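Sat 14:20. Reprocessing the chain from the morning session after the first attempt stalled halfway. Input below, unchanged.
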Amino acid sequence: MDYPLTLPNPDHVSYSGSYDLGLLQTSVPSAQGNQIASFNAAREPISLTYSMDNATYKLWKSFAETDGWKWFDAQLVTTNTPVKITSKQTVRYTGGFSYQKRGHNWGSVTVAAELLPAQATDPLA
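Finished this time. Tokens:
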């Protein structure tokens, strides 16, 4: 599924996140703690901020609530280069979103998201 072309792309300067290798450890409180490790759940959690007018926010919110939790392709700034090159990335929303009023008929919404690890359908990704 593709992100709707009628909705705004995230603000390029708003991206934040980190790469999680998926290392899960459980320790036992003893001198020789037993650890269980798993490396099979790599994640790239990020935060995205979208700026838009109120009418567009209603459309964006409808998309986010109905299809945002599914994997979809969107134009994002690639994570592998320091310059602002957009590329098609597979992403999904993983948490709630917060809206901030920026002025008359204008605001921004921030949402927690996740990139699909090892996405390689776009040569710029």
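The CA atoms of residues 53 and 105 lie 5 Å apart.
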